[in-house]
Amino acid sequence: MKINKINRLALINGYILDGSENMEPAADKVILIDGDTIKAITDRDEWESSDTKQSYEVYDLNGRYVMPGLINMHVHLAGNGKPQKKQRDNAALVGKIMSTALTRRIAYNMVKGFAKLELLSGVTTIRTVGGLADFDTRCRTDIENGRCIGPRIIAANEGISVPGGHMAGSVAIAATTVDEALAQVDRAAKQKVDIIKLMITGGVLDAKAKGVPGELKMQPDMINAVCGRAHKLGYKVAAHVESTEGVRAALANGVDSIEHGAKPDEEIISLFKEKNAFLTTTISPALPYALFDRSISHASEVEQFNGNIVFEGIVECSKAAIANGIPVALGNDVGCPYITQYNFWRELYYFSRYAGVSNAFALHTATQVNAGLAGIGDITGTVAPGMKAELIVTQDNPLDNLCALRNVDCVMAGGNIIDKPEFKRNANVDRELDKMI
């Protein structure tokens, strides 16, 4: 693996997938890059006769495919996705991790390592939605200042939950009152976060009985108050929601994006449109609980039953959103069991397989659409002059098979070019997930 700074680089002899909805491989084009920006895209014949040709270093794609870097809209940077045979006490674990200066330093270095892993796998932007202390904003700043390499980070730091709520005490603060929740919004603002994250319902593992995943935990008055304060400060609000009741409460009280989703009804579709909200589809985390044999997932009968409800709800919500013109983003909820920091490409595959979209639409969603919904569509998400040179290169065409994204040959981001990125994979995770392809 080689990491080099980009000065002036000309990408030749490749096929461009520009990230647009109806993208087709474009041949006989040359992409001219200055530092971290695409300066121009020119015809090959024009390039060959150009007076400036000698001032560019040539990077020969040799018939490979170049496209925008992927954008993962739902990441927990503190998680590695390693499967567990039994549930852990996440709050106790985080308490131990954060208890001393040494363990905090080790944990922060782990977070930086996971951010780098996202980049090496072809993800050039991540949106974090619940993390340890202020680690996500610190990592964002370290990357921006060149102290480490990683993707662009749109950071929430710790989410806001309630006592007994989803991820309370681990990657979310448990607010017992509205005032405590508002205080956490103000604290996050001082940390210079980019978004606010709420944990409104429980999740698959929070439910103790069949048929009740996504139980409403955060009351509407707290949701409304947090959204009001966040919007006043200029922040969008993303919310963990895994039930129809929760989606309704979230949208009615000002949430800007539903993370995960649930089976929608007509009222919910209307609320999405009325509130100009979007859905972040995350098929990956529910899939192992729903579709793996329990001897593999180590899920209880209750967890598998509820996993099916959540899995089907997320897929139905995604399909309904697409059918009704509601914007859909893609994220894979990194950190959940079997969801690693290098496997975002699988979310595109699941989106195509289970939501029934084309490979091109899945890639378009993970690039141009995600960029727009993240508020950065003017700088990344497409291959075009003036955009950041945040690009990936694959040997095969992902429009034919999204598995082409599994191994990227090259990543460009932050003015760096990373040739033949290498990283350690979890063989057990890959083996079991590959059975779903």
TrEMBL record:
- According to the UniProt entry, the coiled-coil residues are none
| A single MF term (Gene Ontology) | hydrolase activity, acting on carbon-nitrogen (but not peptide) bonds
Question: Residues in domain Amidohydrolase-related?
Answer: 65-417
Q: Which Pfam families match?
A: Amidohydro_1
Q: Which InterPro entries match?
A: Amidohydro-rel (IPR006680), Metal-dep_hydrolase_composite (IPR011059), Metal_Hydrolase (IPR032466), Metallo-dep_Hydrolase (IPR051781)
Q: Which domain of life is it from?
A: Bacteria
Kindly provide the name given to this protein in its UniProt entry. Answer: Amidohydrolase-related domain-containing protein
Q: Which organism is it from?
A: [Bacteroides] pectinophilus ATCC 43243
